[in-house]
Amino acid sequence: MSALRCRPWRTLETLQYARAAAQAPCAWMTAHKLSSFISKRAISSSSTRPPEFTKQRCKAGATSSNTAYHNPHLRSYSNSGLSDQPRELENATEDKIDWTRSFHGLSATPFPKEAADILMAETDPEEVEIKPDGILYLPEIKYRRILNKAFGPGGWGLAPRGESIVTPKTVTREYALVCHGRLVSVARGEQDYFSPDGIPTATEGCRSNALVRCCKDLGIASELWDPRYIRKFKAKYTREAFVEHVVNKRKTKIWIRKGDDVTYPWKETK
């Protein structure tokens, strides 16, 4: 037998409330009240769990899903950022370019052949690294070395295009790569962090991530985005290893370079 037959007075009360709701002047507010009323009736009629259990469960769910709300540091960062908005020039001239918004020199003329040969030189396989998930990458410091070799130290730089945006897990900011006084590329960097204390380090990682993305437009290490090169490189220089996590004993498979040993927190299994 259904719950409605057992409790006819509840059904009558619900229908009366619905009829009154249809005549109310504010439809959306009434619909919200009606939904809350019916939900409360359904919970009280069908749930066998004590109220204390329900309150504890709701409280735990709110804590896990609203980390930024309960953390005052993250809440303030999310509302106002890091207050590092680039300063805007009042009277921008050819000598004083506002790189927060300017596209000065973009595609004006190619760089000299000497610089182009350095930028587009084939990447040395010995400098390429591989992540445990199989993604190839070039350490960001090597991008800086290539830029210094092509344009000279001080001949290039990263200009922030906006304020740093901080979410509960990530820092992101847009940067412009400027070489010899010309805009080359604009990219948004991002970096994850695990606690508010790690935000300063994440901002530096965000800057390096933006640099790597900008350098793709200059042709630096372009092979690392070529699927055929990736397959050949992995077949020749890397291997897959079955490993076990030292702490939680979780077993998985990771990629490493041939000749390299598995490092902590993993240990290789046979």
β-strand percent reads 15-25%
User: How would you sum up the global shape?
Assistant: flat
Structural class: alpha+beta
Range of helix content: 40-55%
Number of strands: 9
* Straight-line distance between termini: 61 Å
Order of helices and strands: HHHHHHHEEHEEEEHHEEE
Low-confidence stretches: 1-9, 24-69
On the 0 to 100 scale, the average pLDDT is 78
Strand count, sense and closure of the main sheet? Answer: 4 strands, antiparallel
Q: Which value, in Å, is the CA radius of gyration? A: 29 Å
GO cellular component, one term: mitochondrial chromosome
Keywords: DNA damage, DNA repair, DNA-binding, Mitochondrion, Mitochondrion nucleoid, Transit peptide
InterPro entries: Mgm101 (IPR009446)
Subcellular location: Mitochondrion matrix, Mitochondrion nucleoid
Describe this structure in words.
The chain is of the alpha+beta class and 270 residues long. The chain is built from 10 helices and 9 strands. It has helices spanning 3-6, 8-22, 27-46, 51-65, 67-70, 72-80, 113-119, 140-151, 199-215, 227-237; strands spanning 129-130, 136-137, 156-160, 165-166, 170-179, 182-192, 238-245, 251-257, 266-268. The strands form 3 sheets. Strands 3, 4, 5 and 6 form a 4-stranded antiparallel β-sheet that branches. Strands 8-7-9 form a 3-stranded antiparallel β-sheet. A hairpin with a 3-residue loop joins β4 (165-166) and β5 (170-179). The longest helix has 20 residues, at 27-46.
